[in-house]
Design goal:
Layout lengths: L12 H10 L5 H9 L5 H4 L13 H14 L3 H12 L1
């Protein structure tokens, strides 16, 4: 897989509004984004990818999800179940 670095986009206003309505007191991850901004960027991981091949998923997203999974103490299966449960 190859990497086509792209910038970390800001959270859409509608998404931020819904999140603030759902979590009026905020939560750890919202505070982390508000205080730290984008923690990772694709360019940080570019050296790990070949120049040719199928496009890879954005590595900054994968790194952030891994940190959240660790912070919650979830196994891979538990994390997948949590995502499915929150999509409902």
């Amino acid at each position: 897989m190859c990497l086509h670095p792209s910038p970390v986009e800001p959270v859409p206003k509608d998404t931020a509004d819904v999140a603030r309505a759902a979590f009026s007191k905020g939560n750890t991850y919202m505070k982390m984004r508000d205080d730290l901004g984008a923690i990772f960027e694709d360019e940080t991981f570019a050296f790990l990818f070949p120049r040719r091949g199928r496009p890879a998923f954005s590595p900054w997203r994968l790194a952030l999800v891994t940190i959240m999974q660790f912070a919650e103490g979830l196994s891979d299966r538990q994390a997948a179940d949590a995502v499915r449960g929150r999509i409902d």
